[in-house]
Specification:
Blueprint lengths: L1 H37 L6 H19 L3 H15 L16 H25 L1 H18 L8 H22 L21 E5 L9 H17 L4 E5 L7 H21 L6 E5 L20 E6 L1
Parallel strand pairs: 2-3
Antiparallel strand pairs: 1-4, 2-4
């Protein structure tokens, strides 16, 4: 009887100790959750988001009467709210199946790489959600704890990957913008007015004039012109009557050259002698600028 009484007493004491532990755990978790709720938001967006994400996980765990992990996440929420550097859970600190530990370790490496690669600054909300859901995934996956709750594991795992993808996309190098297309400058309009010069008292086409007349023929073909006007001029050396004849002969010499280039129709020739001078001069002045034929493509 004494033995049975002692066994009963011991059993009762164990139950009481367990109850006290649960009460203490619940009190600690609830107190830390309340502390996390009342804490002012930190200045850094990532810390503020992480504080709220851990608080959500803590409240969810407490709602399931998991005081231990509710308290864990509440304390992480408080740390984040204080601006402390809070790292994702170390997989080695948890009791996990070997295959799950390997997957979680690789996932943690990706998470840390994204966080350290600018994720905290560039995508603070998604980065915080990815970290909190990773910790949730680890905790739910633990063998001694809740490794059998497939729905909770799937929820935390899926939320982790969704948010990590957002962070990875945000920090990925952006392609260089395509350079603005450089518009080719508009082609210069084809010239329609030309001038060729002659030697004193001559109507022969000079070499420099010939190269210009070659261009005149090309320009007529480019613009599709079928007519050209040639007006001869002279300087004031000699009589006005002689100069009138010479100016016409100069226009005809240009016409003949163009005909030799295939311009056989639409050529109008005339001469104005020593009138309408390019450079006004007195009589009997030999001026090169006035010995010319003006060419106009119509």
């Amino acid at each position: 009887m004494k033995i049975l009484s002692r066994l009963g007493f011991c059993a009762a004491m164990l139950v009481l100790a367990a109850c006290e532990q649960n009460v203490v755990g619940a009190f600690s978790a609830d107190g830390n959750i309340e502390t996390a709720r009342m804490a002012g938001p930190p200045t850094q967006p990532f810390d503020a988001a992480l504080q709220q994400e851990y608080l959500v996980v803590a409240e969810r765990e407490v709602a399931e009467a998991d005081w231990e992990h509710g308290d864990l996440f509440a304390r992480k929420a408080i740390a984040a709210g204080s601006g402390e550097a809070v790292a994702p859970e170390d997989v080695g600190n948890w009791t996990l199946p070997a295959d799950k530990a390997e997957e979680l370790s690789a996932s943690r490496d990706l998470l840390v790489g994204a966080l350290d690669g600018g994720g905290r600054e560039i995508a603070p909300d998604a980065a915080a959600a990815a970290q909190a859901n990773f910790d949730c995934w680890v905790q739910e996956q633990e063998t001694r704890n809740e490794g059998h709750q497939e729905g909770d594991i799937a929820f935390c795992r899926s939320a982790f990957w969704d948010n990590l993808a957002i962070v990875q996309t945000a920090i990925a190098p952006k392609p260089e913008p395509e350079p603005e297309p450089v518009m080719a400058p508009a082609p210069e309009p084809v010239a329609r007015d030309y001038l060729v010069y002659f030697d004193f008292d001559s109507d022969a086409v000079r070499a420099d004039a010939a190269s210009i007349l070659d261009r005149v023929a090309e320009a007529m073909n480019e613009v599709g012109s079928s007519s050209v006007t040639l007006v001869g001029h002279t300087d004031t050396m000699g009589s006005a009557e002689y100069n009138q004849i010479l100016s016409v002969e100069r226009a005809k010499s240009v016409a003949d050259y163009l005909k030799g280039l295939g311009i056989t129709r639409g050529i109008s020739t005339s001469g104005v002698g020593q009138t309408d001078l390019r450079v006004p001069t007195p009589d009997e002045v030999a001026e090169q600028e006035n010995r010319n034929v003006q060419i106009t493509i119509n």
